[in-house]
Automatic annotation (TrEMBL):
Protein name stated in the entry: Purine-cytosine permease
Membrane topology category: Multi-pass membrane protein
Species whose genome carries this gene: Liquorilactobacillus hordei DSM 19519
Keywords: Membrane, Transmembrane, Transmembrane helix, Transport
Organismal lineage: Bacteria, Bacillati, Bacillota, Bacilli, Lactobacillales
GO molecular function: cytosine transmembrane transporter activity
Transmembrane segment boundaries: 20-52, 72-97, 117-135, 147-167, 187-206, 218-243, 263-283, 303-326, 332-354, 375-394, 400-422
Cell location: Membrane
Family named by the database record: Belongs to the purine-cytosine permease (2.A.39) family.
Broad class of where this protein is predominantly found: membrane
Pfam families: Transp_cyt_pur
GO CC terms in record: plasma membrane
Length: 431
């Protein structure tokens, strides 16, 4: 379980998040990373315990709070976010392919005149590799993950050595962010929270198989935290080291491919980045396909996988249309913070406070049972989610939150209070 959650954050996206946080400066970025990640993974532990207690996946658990049919809402959201993460990893890996093509045959890089050609080819190559990794079955996926994680660890140590040969930790710590690029503390907390909360809705999918309480709570928390701190730290110091050594800082150069190229790590490093995309996306695509099959039971998993692979490929082109991967990534993280925070709050409040840590598992699939609510939907949960999602944007506009604690965790707290209060009003009305 520990290795699973370390591995969950051993990917391209975590490097990139570290690079994005460079806009806060080294010490502020590390403070944000520790605070926001630790708080996010408290929710992972809470969801993990529910999986341990019930033996049910996270989306299965959501039936108790949203209703059996109402659970389609979090399932569809999970589907879209895993499509999004597939696209994120694909774009980062496609960038590596474009760098390889640049080094091998001289194609222009993305952002340069004619640079779209290399990215088109990179996205096509990565999409084919992802389809192969899924179509070949679970054994090939296991092999890709096992080989990939070893190569990732080797690459991280290698990159660390190169970074600290280039600049010292003292230089990195003393580097000052150009004022026009500086990121507010609250915005940084929201960015890290959205990145980490994406794993929370998959927590029970793994912990439902654990045999001890600590394996479902303490171990996932520790593993995920170690993984995100380790890999984001590497992305952070690598991005700052390039800014220090070159004398220029560009937040768009936070992706692992640009970092590997500027540090002179060579073709092997780019190949490792491509492999890590396959490692992460094999899981993302399987999760998205399973969520789609849950919403549309008549679709076979194989058909669902082809659908999500096609959709992920299409979504990967969005940064090219916008002209900036960083801008597209920021919008995606805002979407995650908006839709996932209220869902997590509702599930946790329902289990721990309203149902007193007891779910009747046999009722989770029973039509007209206790989790059927009205027509299969708990409209209180749906209404709370809608209000919570809308409130996220309102809170983001408050300057005080933007420079302090951000909107995500405040939104989750308000959503929790609202759901608890509305459910209590309904209960009193029935009495």
């Amino acid at each position: 379980m520990f290795a699973t959650w370390v591995g969950a954050n051993a990917n391209n996206g975590t490097w990139y998040i570290g690079g994005v946080l460079a806009a806060c400066g080294f010490f502020a970025a590390m403070n944000v990373l520790v605070f926001s990640s630790a708080l996010s993974y408290v929710f992972l532990s809470l969801i993990g315990f529910i999986g341990y207690k019930t033996g049910v996946s996270t989306m299965g658990i959501s039936r108790a709070s949203f209703g059996i049919r109402g659970s389609f809402l979090p399932s569809l959201i999970n589907f879209t976010q895993f499509i999004g993460w597939t696209a994120v990893n694909t774009f980062i890996a496609a960038t590596s392919v474009s760098y390889l093509l640049h080094d091998l045959i001289g194609l222009p890089l993305f952002g340069q005149p004619g640079g779209n050609t290399g990215m088109f080819l990179g996205i096509a190559v990565m999409s084919v590799l992802h389809i192969i990794s899924i179509a070949s079955g679970s054994r090939s996926v296991q092999l890709i993950e096992r080989v990939g994680i070893i190569l990732v660890f080797i690459f991280v140590f290698w990159e660390s050595i190169v970074v600290f040969k280039t600049v010292s930790l003292e230089q990195i710590a003393a580097w000052d962010v150009p004022s026009k690029f500086r990121m507010n503390g609250g915005s940084a907390i929201d960015t890290v929270a959205a990145f980490n909360l994406a794993w929370v809705t998959a927590g029970a999918d793994f912990t439902r198989f654990t045999k001890k309480k600590s394996d479902s709570t303490v171990v996932p928390f520790a593993g995920a935290l170690v993984g995100v701190l380790w890999f984001a730290f590497i992305g952070l110091v690598a991005t700052i080291s390039i800014a220090v050594s070159s004398g220029a800082y560009d937040p768009n150069n936070s992706d692992p491919s640009a970092i590997a190229s500027k540090l002179g790590l060579g073709i092997i490093a780019l190949l490792v980045i491509i492999l890590t995309s396959m490692t992460a996306n094999a899981v993302n695509l399987m999760a998205a396909g399973s969520a789609l099959s849950n919403v549309f039971p008549k679709l076979s998993l194989k058909v669902s996988l082809w659908i999500v692979a096609l959709l992920a490929t299409i979504v990967t082109f969005i940064p090219m249309i916008l002209g900036s991967f960083l801008n597209a990534f920021t919008v995606f993280l805002d979407y995650i913070g908006m839709v996932l925070g209220p869902i997590i709050s509702i599930i946790i409040v329902d289990f721990y406070l309203l149902k007193k840590k007891e779910y009747k598992v046999t009722e989770l699939t029973k039509q007209n049972g206790i989790y059927w609510y009205r027509g299969g939907i708990n409209w209180i949960a749906v209404i709370t989610w809608v209000i919570g999602a809308g409130l996220f944007f309102v809170l983001q506009k408050i300057n005080f939150l933007s420079i302090t604690v951000g909107a995500t965790f405040i939104d989750m707290l308000l959503s929790a209070v609202l759901y608890f209060a509305l459910m209590k009003v309904i209960e009193k009305g029935r009495d």
